[in-house]
Amino acid sequence: MLILTEFTLVLILSTRLCNSQEWKFPVDFKFGVATSAYQIEGGWNADGKGVSIWDVLGHNRSVLVEDGSNGDVACDSYNKWEEDVMMAKNLGVDYYRISLAWTRILPEGHGTKINPAGVDYYSKLINKLLENGIEPVITLYHWDLPQFFSPLGGWTNPVIVEYFANYARTAFTLFGDKIKTWITFNDPREICQTFKGLVGDVTPNFPLGVAEYLCSHNLLKAHAEAYHIYDKEFRSKQNGKISIIIDFSWSEPANASNPEDVRAAEQNVLFDFGIYANPILDVDYPKGVIDRIAERSKLENLPESRLPKFTLAEKMRIKGTYDFLGINHYMTTYTRAVDNRQVTRPSIEVDAGGERFSDPTWEGCAAYWIKVVPWSLRRLLNWIKNTYHNPDIIITESGYADGSEVLEDDGRINYYRVYLNATLQAILEDGVNVKGYMAWSLMDNYEWIFGYTLRFGLYHVNFTDPNRTRTPKKSVEYFKNVIKTRSIN
Ligand code: GBH
Asked: All domains of the chain, ordered by start, with CATH?
Protein backbone atom coordinates (compact mmCIF):
# COMPACT_ATOMS: atom_id res chain seq x y z
CA MET A 1 0.00 0.00 0.00
CA LEU A 2 2.78 2.31 0.99
CA ILE A 3 4.72 1.42 -2.15
CA LEU A 4 1.66 2.06 -4.25
CA THR A 5 1.14 5.46 -2.62
CA GLU A 6 4.73 6.43 -3.20
CA PHE A 7 4.52 5.18 -6.73
CA THR A 8 1.38 7.22 -7.36
CA LEU A 9 3.09 10.25 -5.89
CA VAL A 10 6.11 9.83 -8.14
CA LEU A 11 3.76 9.47 -11.06
CA ILE A 12 1.89 12.66 -10.19
CA LEU A 13 5.11 14.58 -9.64
CA SER A 14 6.67 13.41 -12.88
CA THR A 15 3.49 14.14 -14.79
CA ARG A 16 3.54 17.60 -13.35
CA LEU A 17 7.16 18.28 -14.18
CA CYS A 18 7.42 16.51 -17.52
CA ASN A 19 4.10 17.28 -19.04
CA SER A 20 4.58 21.02 -18.97
CA GLN A 21 1.68 21.35 -21.41
CA GLU A 22 -0.56 20.64 -18.43
CA TRP A 23 1.23 22.70 -15.82
CA LYS A 24 0.34 26.02 -17.38
CA PHE A 25 -1.73 29.01 -16.45
CA PRO A 26 -5.21 28.77 -17.99
CA VAL A 27 -5.86 30.89 -21.10
CA ASP A 28 -8.06 33.38 -19.22
CA PHE A 29 -5.49 33.88 -16.44
CA LYS A 30 -3.97 37.37 -16.35
CA PHE A 31 -0.66 38.68 -15.06
CA GLY A 32 0.01 42.13 -13.74
CA VAL A 33 2.12 44.47 -11.67
CA ALA A 34 0.90 46.87 -9.00
CA THR A 35 1.82 50.24 -7.47
CA SER A 36 0.00 52.96 -5.55
CA ALA A 37 -0.19 56.73 -5.91
CA TYR A 38 1.62 57.98 -2.81
CA GLN A 39 4.30 55.32 -3.12
CA ILE A 40 5.38 56.29 -6.65
CA GLU A 41 3.98 59.60 -7.92
CA GLY A 42 5.73 62.35 -6.02
CA GLY A 43 4.42 65.72 -7.20
CA TRP A 44 2.82 66.01 -3.78
CA ASN A 45 1.65 69.58 -4.37
CA ALA A 46 2.01 69.78 -8.15
CA ASP A 47 -0.60 71.56 -10.28
CA GLY A 48 -3.28 71.98 -7.65
CA LYS A 49 -3.09 68.68 -5.78
CA GLY A 50 -4.48 68.82 -2.22
CA VAL A 51 -2.81 67.51 0.91
CA SER A 52 -3.25 63.96 2.17
CA ILE A 53 -2.59 62.44 5.60
CA TRP A 54 0.60 60.87 4.20
CA ASP A 55 1.86 64.26 3.00
CA VAL A 56 1.33 65.53 6.53
CA LEU A 57 2.99 62.53 8.14
CA GLY A 58 5.93 62.75 5.73
CA HIS A 59 6.40 66.46 6.48
CA ASN A 60 5.62 66.79 10.17
CA ARG A 61 6.13 63.41 11.69
CA SER A 62 8.72 61.72 9.53
CA VAL A 63 10.35 60.52 12.77
CA LEU A 64 7.85 57.71 12.43
CA VAL A 65 9.46 56.69 9.15
CA GLU A 66 12.46 54.38 9.34
CA ASP A 67 14.76 56.61 7.24
CA GLY A 68 12.97 59.91 8.00
CA SER A 69 11.94 60.19 4.35
CA ASN A 70 8.68 61.06 2.63
CA GLY A 71 6.97 60.57 -0.73
CA ASP A 72 7.37 64.17 -1.97
CA VAL A 73 9.22 62.92 -5.05
CA ALA A 74 9.19 59.12 -4.62
CA CYS A 75 9.69 57.55 -8.08
CA ASP A 76 8.62 60.82 -9.72
CA SER A 77 5.99 58.93 -11.69
CA TYR A 78 4.02 62.17 -11.89
CA ASN A 79 6.60 63.06 -14.54
CA LYS A 80 7.95 59.67 -15.56
CA TRP A 81 4.66 57.84 -16.21
CA GLU A 82 5.49 57.11 -19.84
CA GLU A 83 8.59 55.24 -18.80
CA ASP A 84 6.50 53.25 -16.30
CA VAL A 85 4.14 52.20 -19.08
CA MET A 86 7.10 51.08 -21.20
CA MET A 87 8.43 49.02 -18.29
CA ALA A 88 5.05 47.32 -17.88
CA LYS A 89 4.95 46.73 -21.61
CA ASN A 90 8.42 45.20 -21.59
CA LEU A 91 7.21 42.73 -18.96
CA GLY A 92 4.29 41.79 -21.18
CA VAL A 93 1.70 42.16 -18.41
CA ASP A 94 -2.04 42.14 -19.00
CA TYR A 95 -2.71 44.48 -16.05
CA TYR A 96 -1.08 47.52 -14.50
CA ARG A 97 -2.75 48.27 -11.20
CA ILE A 98 -2.43 51.89 -10.02
CA SER A 99 -4.30 53.96 -7.48
CA LEU A 100 -5.77 57.42 -7.82
CA ALA A 101 -4.67 60.08 -5.38
CA TRP A 102 -8.03 61.33 -4.10
CA THR A 103 -6.45 64.76 -3.50
CA ARG A 104 -5.23 65.00 -7.10
CA ILE A 105 -8.83 64.70 -8.33
CA LEU A 106 -10.67 66.50 -5.51
CA PRO A 107 -8.00 68.65 -3.80
CA GLU A 108 -10.28 69.45 -0.88
CA GLY A 109 -11.39 65.85 -0.51
CA HIS A 110 -15.04 66.82 -0.59
CA GLY A 111 -17.33 68.84 -2.80
CA THR A 112 -17.27 69.09 -6.56
CA LYS A 113 -14.17 71.19 -7.22
CA ILE A 114 -12.23 68.96 -9.60
CA ASN A 115 -8.55 69.58 -10.36
CA PRO A 116 -8.18 69.42 -14.17
CA ALA A 117 -4.41 68.76 -14.01
CA GLY A 118 -5.02 65.68 -11.89
CA VAL A 119 -7.66 64.40 -14.29
CA ASP A 120 -5.29 65.06 -17.16
CA TYR A 121 -2.48 63.11 -15.48
CA TYR A 122 -4.56 59.97 -15.01
CA SER A 123 -6.20 60.30 -18.44
CA LYS A 124 -2.82 60.40 -20.15
CA LEU A 125 -1.60 57.41 -18.14
CA ILE A 126 -4.76 55.39 -18.79
CA ASN A 127 -4.70 56.16 -22.52
CA LYS A 128 -1.05 55.24 -22.84
CA LEU A 129 -1.65 51.92 -21.10
CA LEU A 130 -4.60 51.14 -23.38
CA GLU A 131 -2.60 52.09 -26.49
CA ASN A 132 -0.01 49.55 -25.38
CA GLY A 133 -2.51 46.78 -24.78
CA ILE A 134 -2.32 46.95 -20.98
CA GLU A 135 -5.49 47.05 -18.91
CA PRO A 136 -5.38 49.73 -16.18
CA VAL A 137 -6.80 48.44 -12.89
CA ILE A 138 -7.74 51.30 -10.60
CA THR A 139 -7.78 51.37 -6.83
CA LEU A 140 -9.75 54.32 -5.51
CA TYR A 141 -8.24 54.28 -2.05
CA HIS A 142 -4.71 53.17 -1.27
CA TRP A 143 -4.35 54.94 2.10
CA ASP A 144 -3.77 58.59 1.11
CA LEU A 145 -6.83 60.09 2.77
CA PRO A 146 -7.39 63.82 2.17
CA GLN A 147 -6.11 65.67 5.24
CA PHE A 148 -9.50 67.40 5.50
CA PHE A 149 -10.93 64.26 7.13
CA SER A 150 -8.17 63.78 9.67
CA PRO A 151 -9.47 66.16 12.40
CA LEU A 152 -12.86 64.52 11.92
CA GLY A 153 -11.38 61.18 12.91
CA GLY A 154 -10.75 59.76 9.44
CA TRP A 155 -12.50 56.46 8.85
CA THR A 156 -13.77 56.27 12.42
CA ASN A 157 -16.34 58.98 11.61
CA PRO A 158 -19.44 57.79 9.71
CA VAL A 159 -19.63 61.04 7.69
CA ILE A 160 -16.81 59.63 5.56
CA VAL A 161 -19.21 57.21 3.86
CA GLU A 162 -20.96 59.95 1.86
CA TYR A 163 -17.69 61.72 1.06
CA PHE A 164 -16.16 58.53 -0.29
CA ALA A 165 -19.29 57.84 -2.33
CA ASN A 166 -18.98 61.30 -3.88
CA TYR A 167 -15.33 60.67 -4.75
CA ALA A 168 -16.12 57.24 -6.21
CA ARG A 169 -18.91 58.67 -8.39
CA THR A 170 -16.53 61.40 -9.57
CA ALA A 171 -13.91 58.82 -10.55
CA PHE A 172 -16.44 56.61 -12.38
CA THR A 173 -17.71 59.65 -14.27
CA LEU A 174 -14.23 60.84 -15.24
CA PHE A 175 -12.52 57.56 -16.14
CA GLY A 176 -15.16 54.81 -16.19
CA ASP A 177 -15.51 54.65 -19.97
CA LYS A 178 -11.93 53.34 -20.12
CA ILE A 179 -11.80 51.20 -16.98
CA LYS A 180 -12.96 47.59 -16.72
CA THR A 181 -11.66 46.75 -13.24
CA TRP A 182 -12.22 48.97 -10.22
CA ILE A 183 -11.10 48.41 -6.64
CA THR A 184 -12.67 50.46 -3.85
CA PHE A 185 -10.18 49.85 -1.02
CA ASN A 186 -6.75 48.35 -0.71
CA ASP A 187 -6.33 46.40 2.53
CA PRO A 188 -8.98 47.36 5.09
CA ARG A 189 -6.89 45.56 7.65
CA GLU A 190 -3.96 47.93 7.18
CA ILE A 191 -6.27 50.95 7.09
CA CYS A 192 -8.18 50.00 10.23
CA GLN A 193 -5.77 47.88 12.26
CA THR A 194 -2.27 49.15 11.45
CA PHE A 195 -3.26 52.77 10.99
CA LYS A 196 -6.38 52.78 13.17
CA GLY A 197 -8.44 54.56 10.55
CA LEU A 198 -6.13 57.56 10.75
CA VAL A 199 -2.40 57.29 10.33
CA GLY A 200 0.77 57.12 12.36
CA ASP A 201 1.09 57.32 16.09
CA VAL A 202 -1.98 57.27 18.25
CA THR A 203 -2.20 58.98 21.62
CA PRO A 204 -2.02 56.84 24.77
CA ASN A 205 -5.73 57.33 25.33
CA PHE A 206 -6.71 56.45 21.80
CA PRO A 207 -9.70 54.11 22.01
CA LEU A 208 -8.18 50.93 20.64
CA GLY A 209 -10.63 48.06 20.47
CA VAL A 210 -13.27 50.60 19.44
CA ALA A 211 -11.59 52.68 16.73
CA GLU A 212 -10.58 49.68 14.62
CA TYR A 213 -14.18 48.48 14.51
CA LEU A 214 -15.67 51.90 13.77
CA CYS A 215 -13.21 52.14 10.89
CA SER A 216 -14.17 48.71 9.49
CA HIS A 217 -17.84 49.52 9.89
CA ASN A 218 -17.64 52.78 7.95
CA LEU A 219 -15.25 51.37 5.38
CA LEU A 220 -17.56 48.46 4.61
CA LYS A 221 -20.49 50.84 4.22
CA ALA A 222 -18.45 53.14 1.99
CA HIS A 223 -17.39 50.17 -0.14
CA ALA A 224 -21.01 49.10 -0.53
CA GLU A 225 -22.14 52.61 -1.50
CA ALA A 226 -19.44 52.83 -4.19
CA TYR A 227 -20.40 49.38 -5.47
CA HIS A 228 -24.10 50.31 -5.72
CA ILE A 229 -23.34 53.64 -7.39
CA TYR A 230 -21.31 51.80 -10.01
CA ASP A 231 -23.93 49.12 -10.38
CA LYS A 232 -26.86 51.49 -10.73
CA GLU A 233 -25.42 54.47 -12.56
CA PHE A 234 -22.46 53.21 -14.60
CA ARG A 235 -22.32 49.47 -15.13
CA SER A 236 -24.77 49.26 -18.02
CA LYS A 237 -22.76 51.80 -20.04
CA GLN A 238 -19.26 50.95 -18.87
CA ASN A 239 -19.42 47.17 -18.42
CA GLY A 240 -16.71 46.94 -15.79
CA LYS A 241 -16.25 45.00 -12.60
CA ILE A 242 -15.78 46.34 -9.11
CA SER A 243 -14.63 44.89 -5.85
CA ILE A 244 -12.38 45.31 -2.82
CA ILE A 245 -8.90 44.04 -2.00
CA ILE A 246 -8.53 42.32 1.35
CA ASP A 247 -5.12 41.51 2.76
CA PHE A 248 -4.96 37.86 3.83
CA SER A 249 -2.29 36.85 6.33
CA TRP A 250 -2.56 33.15 6.95
CA SER A 251 -2.56 31.67 10.48
CA GLU A 252 -1.73 28.00 10.74
CA PRO A 253 -2.48 26.08 13.97
CA ALA A 254 0.76 25.51 15.89
CA ASN A 255 -0.32 21.95 16.51
CA ALA A 256 -2.96 20.74 14.05
CA SER A 257 -4.02 17.91 16.34
CA ASN A 258 -4.73 20.27 19.23
CA PRO A 259 -8.32 21.54 18.84
CA GLU A 260 -7.52 24.63 20.92
CA ASP A 261 -4.76 25.68 18.51
CA VAL A 262 -7.03 24.97 15.55
CA ARG A 263 -9.70 27.19 17.07
CA ALA A 264 -7.21 29.97 17.90
CA ALA A 265 -5.79 29.98 14.35
CA GLU A 266 -9.27 30.06 12.85
CA GLN A 267 -10.14 32.98 15.13
CA ASN A 268 -7.07 34.87 13.88
CA VAL A 269 -8.18 34.27 10.30
CA LEU A 270 -11.62 35.65 11.15
CA PHE A 271 -10.18 38.77 12.81
CA ASP A 272 -7.62 39.41 10.05
CA PHE A 273 -9.72 38.58 7.02
CA GLY A 274 -13.25 37.38 7.81
CA ILE A 275 -14.21 40.58 9.59
CA TYR A 276 -13.91 42.40 6.22
CA ALA A 277 -14.75 39.56 3.84
CA ASN A 278 -17.76 38.02 5.53
CA PRO A 279 -20.12 41.03 5.36
CA ILE A 280 -19.43 41.20 1.61
CA LEU A 281 -19.11 37.56 0.56
CA ASP A 282 -21.64 36.16 3.04
CA VAL A 283 -23.57 38.38 5.43
CA ASP A 284 -22.62 40.39 8.53
CA TYR A 285 -19.45 39.95 10.59
CA PRO A 286 -18.41 36.34 11.22
CA LYS A 287 -20.22 34.78 14.16
CA GLY A 288 -16.84 33.98 15.77
CA VAL A 289 -15.96 37.68 15.74
CA ILE A 290 -19.36 38.86 17.00
CA ASP A 291 -19.37 36.33 19.86
CA ARG A 292 -15.77 36.91 20.88
CA ILE A 293 -16.06 40.72 21.08
CA ALA A 294 -19.38 40.42 22.92
CA GLU A 295 -17.81 38.06 25.42
CA ARG A 296 -14.79 40.31 26.00
CA SER A 297 -16.98 43.42 26.27
CA LYS A 298 -18.97 41.67 28.98
CA LEU A 299 -15.80 40.81 30.87
CA GLU A 300 -14.92 44.50 30.67
CA ASN A 301 -18.31 45.36 32.22
CA LEU A 302 -19.44 47.25 29.15
CA PRO A 303 -23.20 47.60 28.63
CA GLU A 304 -22.88 46.36 25.05
CA SER A 305 -20.39 44.96 22.59
CA ARG A 306 -17.58 47.19 21.30
CA LEU A 307 -18.33 45.85 17.81
CA PRO A 308 -20.93 48.11 16.14
CA LYS A 309 -24.01 46.38 14.75
CA PHE A 310 -25.29 46.59 11.20
CA THR A 311 -29.03 47.03 10.78
CA LEU A 312 -30.72 44.41 8.63
CA ALA A 313 -30.91 46.95 5.78
CA GLU A 314 -27.17 47.66 6.08
CA LYS A 315 -26.35 43.95 6.08
CA MET A 316 -28.29 43.48 2.88
CA ARG A 317 -26.76 46.57 1.31
CA ILE A 318 -23.21 45.23 1.90
CA LYS A 319 -23.92 41.59 1.09
CA GLY A 320 -22.85 40.57 -2.42
CA THR A 321 -21.03 43.81 -3.30
CA TYR A 322 -18.24 42.10 -5.24
CA ASP A 323 -17.74 40.94 -8.82
CA PHE A 324 -14.56 39.05 -7.85
CA LEU A 325 -12.36 39.09 -4.78
CA GLY A 326 -8.97 40.86 -4.64
CA ILE A 327 -6.39 39.34 -2.30
CA ASN A 328 -3.03 40.70 -1.17
CA HIS A 329 -0.88 38.09 0.47
CA TYR A 330 2.42 38.44 2.29
CA MET A 331 2.37 37.05 5.78
CA THR A 332 2.17 33.63 7.45
CA THR A 333 2.32 32.78 11.14
CA TYR A 334 1.64 29.86 13.38
CA THR A 335 -0.96 30.46 16.08
CA ARG A 336 -0.97 28.80 19.43
CA ALA A 337 -3.90 28.99 21.85
CA VAL A 338 -3.21 30.98 25.01
CA ASP A 339 -5.34 31.67 28.01
CA ASN A 340 -6.44 35.26 27.47
CA ARG A 341 -9.56 35.53 29.54
CA GLN A 342 -8.06 38.20 31.76
CA VAL A 343 -9.23 41.77 31.22
CA THR A 344 -6.59 44.06 29.76
CA ARG A 345 -6.77 47.23 27.72
CA PRO A 346 -8.98 46.24 24.80
CA SER A 347 -7.64 46.11 21.26
CA ILE A 348 -8.32 44.08 18.15
CA GLU A 349 -5.12 42.12 18.85
CA VAL A 350 -6.36 41.07 22.27
CA ASP A 351 -9.78 40.29 20.81
CA ALA A 352 -8.18 38.15 18.11
CA GLY A 353 -6.33 36.24 20.83
CA GLY A 354 -3.82 33.47 20.34
CA GLU A 355 -0.09 33.84 20.13
CA ARG A 356 1.53 34.18 16.74
CA PHE A 357 5.01 33.14 15.86
CA SER A 358 6.96 32.11 12.81
CA ASP A 359 9.02 29.01 12.23
CA PRO A 360 12.72 29.88 12.48
CA THR A 361 13.44 27.56 9.56
CA TRP A 362 11.25 29.60 7.18
CA GLU A 363 13.30 31.63 4.73
CA GLY A 364 12.86 35.34 5.36
CA CYS A 365 13.59 38.52 3.47
CA ALA A 366 14.37 42.14 4.36
CA ALA A 367 10.75 42.77 5.38
CA TYR A 368 10.46 41.05 8.76
CA TRP A 369 6.83 40.07 8.18
CA ILE A 370 7.49 38.23 4.92
CA LYS A 371 8.52 34.59 5.04
CA VAL A 372 8.74 32.37 2.00
CA VAL A 373 5.94 29.93 2.86
CA PRO A 374 4.11 29.22 -0.41
CA TRP A 375 1.86 26.47 0.98
CA SER A 376 0.17 29.14 3.05
CA LEU A 377 -1.05 30.89 -0.13
CA ARG A 378 -2.51 27.59 -1.33
CA ARG A 379 -4.23 27.06 2.05
CA LEU A 380 -5.81 30.49 2.20
CA LEU A 381 -7.04 30.22 -1.39
CA ASN A 382 -8.69 26.94 -0.46
CA TRP A 383 -10.12 28.51 2.70
CA ILE A 384 -11.78 31.20 0.55
CA LYS A 385 -13.07 28.60 -1.91
CA ASN A 386 -14.60 26.51 0.84
CA THR A 387 -15.94 29.37 2.95
CA TYR A 388 -17.39 31.57 0.20
CA HIS A 389 -18.60 29.30 -2.62
CA ASN A 390 -15.52 29.49 -4.80
CA PRO A 391 -15.57 33.12 -5.96
CA ASP A 392 -13.32 34.44 -8.73
CA ILE A 393 -10.12 35.61 -7.06
CA ILE A 394 -7.41 37.94 -8.30
CA ILE A 395 -4.17 37.98 -6.33
CA THR A 396 -3.64 41.72 -6.50
CA GLU A 397 -0.32 41.82 -4.60
CA SER A 398 2.40 39.36 -3.75
CA GLY A 399 6.03 40.24 -3.41
CA TYR A 400 9.42 40.11 -1.77
CA ALA A 401 11.67 42.84 -0.35
CA ASP A 402 15.39 43.37 -0.50
CA GLY A 403 16.98 45.69 2.03
CA SER A 404 19.71 46.90 -0.29
CA GLU A 405 20.20 47.72 -3.94
CA VAL A 406 20.29 44.22 -5.33
CA LEU A 407 20.06 43.84 -9.11
CA GLU A 408 20.78 40.10 -9.19
CA ASP A 409 17.63 39.45 -7.18
CA ASP A 410 17.61 35.68 -6.98
CA GLY A 411 15.63 35.77 -3.74
CA ARG A 412 12.78 37.53 -5.56
CA ILE A 413 12.95 35.13 -8.50
CA ASN A 414 12.69 32.18 -6.16
CA TYR A 415 9.79 33.87 -4.34
CA TYR A 416 7.79 34.32 -7.53
CA ARG A 417 8.64 30.82 -8.70
CA VAL A 418 7.27 29.15 -5.58
CA TYR A 419 4.27 31.47 -5.10
CA LEU A 420 3.23 31.16 -8.72
CA ASN A 421 3.57 27.41 -8.35
CA ALA A 422 1.32 27.48 -5.27
CA THR A 423 -1.17 29.51 -7.33
CA LEU A 424 -1.08 26.87 -10.06
CA GLN A 425 -1.57 24.09 -7.52
CA ALA A 426 -4.62 25.90 -6.17
CA ILE A 427 -6.05 26.29 -9.66
CA LEU A 428 -5.17 22.98 -11.28
CA GLU A 429 -5.26 20.60 -8.33
CA ASP A 430 -7.77 22.22 -5.98
CA GLY A 431 -10.11 23.94 -8.43
CA VAL A 432 -9.83 27.39 -6.87
CA ASN A 433 -10.97 30.12 -9.30
CA VAL A 434 -7.83 32.25 -9.31
CA LYS A 435 -7.99 34.51 -12.36
CA GLY A 436 -4.90 36.65 -12.02
CA TYR A 437 -1.65 37.39 -10.20
CA MET A 438 -0.06 40.81 -9.79
CA ALA A 439 3.48 41.27 -8.58
CA TRP A 440 4.19 43.92 -5.97
CA SER A 441 5.78 45.91 -7.35
CA LEU A 442 6.61 47.21 -10.82
CA MET A 443 9.48 49.18 -9.25
CA ASP A 444 11.11 50.02 -5.93
CA ASN A 445 9.02 52.66 -4.18
CA TYR A 446 8.16 54.45 -0.93
CA GLU A 447 7.38 51.65 1.50
CA TRP A 448 5.27 53.66 3.98
CA ILE A 449 6.82 53.77 7.44
CA PHE A 450 9.83 51.87 6.08
CA GLY A 451 10.57 54.72 3.67
CA TYR A 452 13.05 53.68 0.98
CA THR A 453 14.70 50.99 3.10
CA LEU A 454 12.70 48.14 1.58
CA ARG A 455 12.84 47.45 -2.14
CA PHE A 456 9.98 45.43 -3.62
CA GLY A 457 10.54 46.30 -7.30
CA LEU A 458 11.09 44.21 -10.38
CA TYR A 459 12.80 47.41 -11.56
CA HIS A 460 15.38 49.14 -9.41
CA VAL A 461 14.91 52.88 -8.82
CA ASN A 462 17.85 55.12 -7.95
CA PHE A 463 16.41 57.45 -5.31
CA THR A 464 19.56 59.58 -5.04
CA ASP A 465 19.50 60.38 -8.74
CA PRO A 466 17.26 63.38 -9.55
CA ASN A 467 16.24 61.44 -12.65
CA ARG A 468 15.01 58.52 -10.56
CA THR A 469 16.59 56.20 -13.11
CA ARG A 470 14.90 52.79 -13.43
CA THR A 471 16.99 49.68 -14.13
CA PRO A 472 15.59 46.19 -14.70
CA LYS A 473 16.59 43.64 -12.08
CA LYS A 474 17.20 40.02 -13.01
CA SER A 475 13.61 39.22 -11.94
CA VAL A 476 12.28 41.24 -14.91
CA GLU A 477 13.55 38.56 -17.31
CA TYR A 478 12.14 35.86 -15.07
CA PHE A 479 8.65 37.35 -14.75
CA LYS A 480 8.61 38.23 -18.42
CA ASN A 481 9.36 34.63 -19.32
CA VAL A 482 6.64 33.28 -17.04
CA ILE A 483 4.15 35.55 -18.77
CA LYS A 484 5.40 34.63 -22.23
CA THR A 485 5.42 30.88 -21.70
CA ARG A 486 2.50 30.90 -19.22
CA SER A 487 4.49 28.44 -17.19
CA ILE A 488 6.97 28.43 -14.34
CA ASN A 489 10.57 27.58 -14.93
C1 GBH B 1 0.79 45.97 0.98
O2 GBH B 1 0.11 45.68 2.16
C3 GBH B 1 0.43 47.36 0.58
O4 GBH B 1 -0.79 47.35 -0.12
C5 GBH B 1 1.49 48.03 -0.25
O6 GBH B 1 1.19 49.38 -0.34
C7 GBH B 1 2.85 47.77 0.35
O8 GBH B 1 3.85 48.43 -0.37
C9 GBH B 1 3.07 46.28 0.34
O10 GBH B 1 2.12 45.70 1.17
C11 GBH B 1 4.42 45.83 0.85
O12 GBH B 1 4.49 45.96 2.24
O13 GBH B 1 5.17 47.27 11.29
O14 GBH B 1 2.80 47.36 11.65
O15 GBH B 1 3.71 48.44 9.73
C16 GBH B 1 0.72 44.83 3.05
C17 GBH B 1 0.88 45.61 4.29
C18 GBH B 1 2.42 46.79 5.45
C19 GBH B 1 1.86 44.51 6.06
C20 GBH B 1 3.47 46.80 6.49
C21 GBH B 1 2.88 44.56 7.12
C22 GBH B 1 4.20 45.87 8.50
C23 GBH B 1 3.64 45.81 9.85
N24 GBH B 1 2.10 45.45 4.99
N25 GBH B 1 3.12 45.92 7.55
S26 GBH B 1 3.86 47.32 10.69
From this structure: 33-485 (3.20.20.80)
